[in-house]
Amino acid sequence: MITKLQNLNIRWFSQVKLNRSFIQIRPNTTQSTQTTSPESIQFLPTLSSSHLIPFPSSSSSSNSPSTVTTTTSSSSSPPIKSIGQYRAYSPQHFYNNRVLEKYAYQSVNTVTLRQLIVFGRNITKDRLIKSANYVRSELPIRLAHRIRDFQSLPFIIGTNPHIAMVYELYWLAFEKLRKIPLIKDMDENDEFCNTLKGLLKEHLVVIPQLSMGISECSNHLPPDQLDKFMSIMLRSRISRRVLAEQQITLTENWNDHGYIYGADGIGDNINIGIVSTQCNSNDIVEKCAHMTRNLCRVIYKVEPPEVIVNNQVDTTFAYIPDHIEYILYELLHNSIRSVIENHSPSLKDTSISNEILQQLLQDQNSPKSPKSLNFNSLLNNKNFSSSSSQYPPILVTICSSPTDIYFRISDQGGGISDDIYSNIWSFASSTSSNKKFKNFIQVPQMAATVQEYEQLIISPTLNLGIGLPMSKVYVEYWGGGINLFTMDGYGTDAYVKISRLGNKEENLE
Amino acid sequence: MTLLRTFGINNINKLGKFCYNNLPTFRTQLRLYNTQQEVVVSFYDDKATKYAEKSIRPVTLKELMRFVQPSLNNTSTLLESAKYTRSELPVRLARRVKALQNLPFIVGTNPYIKSIYKLYYNSFELIRSFPENICDKGIDEKFAEMLKEMVTSHSENIPTLAKGMTFLLDYFFINFFKFSLSLFFFKGFQECKKYMSPEDIKNFLDDMISARIGIRLIAEQHIALHNNLNDTSYTGIIDTKLQPQKSIQSCSNFVKELCEVHYGSAPNILIDGQIDTIFTYVPVHLEYIITELLKNSCRATVEYSQKVNRTKHPPVIVTISKGKNFIGIRVRDQGGGVPTKDLTSIFDYSYTTVPQDDIIGGLEGQNILANVSKMAMQSGLGGPIAGLGYGLPLARIYANYFGGSIDLVSLHDYGCDVFLRLKQIDKSLEDLEI
């Protein structure tokens, strides 16, 4: 099925290439959708039926909030709408914009990790509803700010089908969220959470679509402006997902009676919603190292370089594990791949399908595999080095100041050449803009979490080119920093600094 | 450091002997400087203004090196080089004179700035008054002699401080003050900082120092034509087969000894990576930068060891890489890093991580000899005028001069990684203008 899907993608992509004009490809795309319906769902954006309803005029919309909520709750069976059907500039929007502006003028109420923790730690029904209403009122404001960003782009960029699609998605989400009435009880909260879940799922297409859109627009705006747009877009996206997921998780935990929550002992609950109060620097590095080594072992069929943790501190901190794991996974993965490819150039072209990968990974993890012994030692041994690898190890140094934690990942993977190095943080890299995000055609949805690689939702062999810029977005969101220095011909050092106190406000601008 | 290599000196104990043997030269130079100070600069003398209006003729490294091709090593190329030098230097020096003249009047009256002004003016006069038509080898010899005098005078003008100084100190002066006319600038501008904005000072110094690198390159290149014609890997002051590993090794021996003299112990300095790298560069620039970086790392390591009661110093690791266009040198230490509040200003002038009082005090007192190593260790290469923190910014100017860079990353309570990137200048000889 996957190969079929890929074929389809390639066919579709070639059509895009052939017909640069957006209007021309529309009939073709719809046609291909009709002929191969079940598979195509996977890569074409899925939208609920409610999206097909044209926007009610602003006067009538406020009177019928209940109908909106009912339509959203039935969004589980989405009919498909091809990219071609999204309109970049709907005439309603221009006059509807007054509604948007009302929200866009309001400023965002940022939170800190600490606030999320304290609030979630002593959760009560009242607090849960209070936070639901915070999320309910905050999300449309944050969306409105970003929709205004879209509107400030040059007109030509707004007509790009990918950008247009995301714009439309944002508008729909904005309309949907702003019409939700005040949440008064737990049932309404549950319903609200379902709406959020639906939106989160729908918006999984945003990263791939935006990335492709941005790289296609590199002729129309200088790369630095495109990058700025993209990084604000993505940081805001993270922020909205954090708020939504936090509310969903808190609600789920509340509804789950077996879950001890808000107990007196603070140490009892390590996870407050999606936040962990006890992220262990060592464990996270080991987990990410384990995962990426595991994958590389399968992909390249060699014993990957060891990851040696030279930890100055074994420290815990409050963070959202998904975020730091994504960053460290990306960095370690880059390092391990470049070490292997640099030291055995013959392994450079690795094409492996997800199915085979899945199979191999299962073999790898089965207890009778000789490598499994190594895994155990990986987890037990601080310097998880046991079997000898032919490659120079990746050195990870962890240290901390009273306010920050630093990770340094040092490899001997041959470094990065000048032309690539100057664009590593760019979404709209100038030299190879069209090449950079071409593989996104194979990734219809992306949440940018490690789980996607772990569960092979996204093939780890795909080079998407978004790992570093996305890591930067993640780390800057909570006020941290990331940097990468390379010694061309020798190796690369990556540095990550994150705040350990959790008292930094979300960085949205 | 050039001397260091030329004479094979890497042991401080040998220095005394070396300096003693060379003592007459230093004395001559000091006298030379003192006589220069007598020159009076007149307001109505507008030669500098006239010259400064002429446009400079940037020379590419390739052209500069062409003068020294062994095959072309004959009188005509020598004279060509002499002519270029003779016509170019007065213009460049005049521009510096103008820059100094345009400083606020109060700044110009500062003794340090004033003496620099005189020095530049004298150098300008010296070359300007030399016959324009250098038509035979004899005149060229004289011209080269004069250039040598100029270069040394620009290196070692520290007459007041030099009084009563001993061999060891002389050693530092010859070696360090080659680079350290800047010292006077820094001292001068430290005293003048209330009269000029930090940006103005920074811009002035940046301009001044990079212009000086250009002037020195041109002058020294011509001088070098008269010297090392038998050394094949050198074309003038550019080494076409520079082995960074060797340079780093000699610098690290020197820094380690300096560190031992001052602190009683020194961290080991290890060199790894692509140690067989060979590239084309100006060795003095590389050595200046490396010494500066190693000094910082050693100092940080030893002081951090004292702070946290570490019995054994972790080594300073220098890694060399050869990329397509750049040579990379990474200096990695475990000296505790730079405090976050200082990170933004480490490449600024007039900043140092060392407290100032005790060093400045040492300068005025009698125990100046005892303080020499300390000063050299704690300040920039120039040593004596410490607490001014120009080591890193100066190293950065040198690195930037041919399109390289220096970046520093600090890991709190752990250490620093400094990344030096130097362009392989033979790959872009055509583009690099001096």
Estimated helix fraction of chain B: 55-70%
Q: Can you list the strand order of the major beta sheet of chain A?
A: 3-5-6-8-7
CATH class call of the largest domain in chain A? Alpha Beta
Biggest interface, residues from each chain: A-B, 21 and 21 residues
Could you say what the CATH topology of the largest domain in chain B is called?
Butyryl-CoA Dehydrogenase, subunit A, domain 3
Q: Structural class from helices and strands of chain A?
A: alpha+beta
Q: Architecture of the largest domain in chain A, according to CATH? A: 2-Layer Sandwich
Oligomer: heterodimer
Q: Looking at the structure, what is the overall shape of chain B?
A: globular
Question: Strand pairing plus helix content of chain B: what structural class?
Answer: alpha+beta
Order of helices and strands of chain A: HHHHHHHHHHHHHEEHEEHHHEEHHHHEE
Individual helix count of chain A: 21
Strand content of chain B: 5-15%
The shape of chain A is globular
Please give the domain count of chain A: 2
**In CATH terms, what is the fold-level topology of the largest domain in chain A?**
Heat Shock Protein 90
Total beta-strand segments of chain A: 8
In angstroms, what separates the terminal alpha carbons of chain B? 22 Å
Helix content of chain A: 40-55%
Strand order of the largest sheet of chain B: 3-5-6-8-7
Topology:
The complex is a heterodimer of chains A (509) and B (434).
Chain A: H1 2-18, H2 22-35, H3 37-40, H4 58-61, H5 65-73, H6 91-104, H7 113-121, H8 125-152, H9 155-158, H10 161-178, H11 186-202, H12 206-216, H13 223-255, E1 271-272, E2 275-280, H14 281-300, E3 307-311, E4 316-319, H15 321-343, H16 354-365, H17 372-380, E5 394-400, E6 404-410, H18 418-421, H19 433-436, H20 450-454, H21 467-477, E7 481-487, E8 491-499
Parallel strand pairs in A: 3-5
Antiparallel strand pairs in A: 1-2, 2-4, 5-6, 6-8, 7-8
Chain B: H1 2-7, H2 12-36, H3 47-53, H4 61-66, H5 75-101, H6 105-108, H7 111-128, H8 137-155, H9 159-162, H10 167-176, H11 182-192, H12 198-225, E1 234-235, E2 238-242, H13 244-263, E3 269-273, E4 279-281, H14 283-308, E5 316-322, E6 326-332, H15 340-343, H16 357-364, H17 368-378, H18 391-401, E7 405-411, E8 415-423
Parallel strand pairs in B: 3-5
Antiparallel strand pairs in B: 1-2, 2-4, 5-6, 6-8, 7-8
Helix pairs in contact in B: 2-10, 3-5, 5-7, 5-8, 5-12, 7-8, 7-11, 8-12, 12-18, 13-14, 13-17, 14-18, 16-17
